Amino acid sequence: MNTKNNYKKMNSPKNYLKNITLFILVTILLLSLTACGSTTHTIKSEDMEITLSKEYKKSTLANATWYYSSPDGLAMGIRSLKDDVEKSGLEVDSVADYAAAYIKANNIPGSPSVKTKDGYVYFKYNHKVSGTEYSYLTCVYDNNDEYWLVNFACYKELYSEYEKEFFASADSVTFVEEEK
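The structure corresponding to this sequence follows.
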């Protein structure tokens, strides 16, 4: 075996270009796989901002202020002015009262308990719709003269996978002053 000839073949201009091209392609592939692309996006509706996973796409739903759906679930927000809540006859003195009134008014199954987290209250429940079981995380915020209800839902069997993401989105909620 002639190692001198093998060395010349390996280092020929043709092989050199192939090696450089291969190196560049592998580098581009690795960079595209490890790029720091955002996996979330922030949406704004009225005076509320929330960060959702990029898999959520804007949709519409009657009576929802904003509504986003994904292949496995949904996220929606409902804004209620406190004056309108009072005019409807509901006796609500706090965000926890509003959450309890919402549970009662919507006949939410299982009488879920309202729990407190930094900046909002929440409750969890399961509900069957058209034969399919869904799990819900509903968060309620008090913002000056309004209540915001943010509802997350997914297939019941996926809830344990999504709960952390739902709470991360709920924790991201901020309220901004409307530009006048």
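The beta strands are 40-45, 48-53, 57-59, 66-69, 73-81, 115-117, 120-129, 132-143, 146-155, 174-175.
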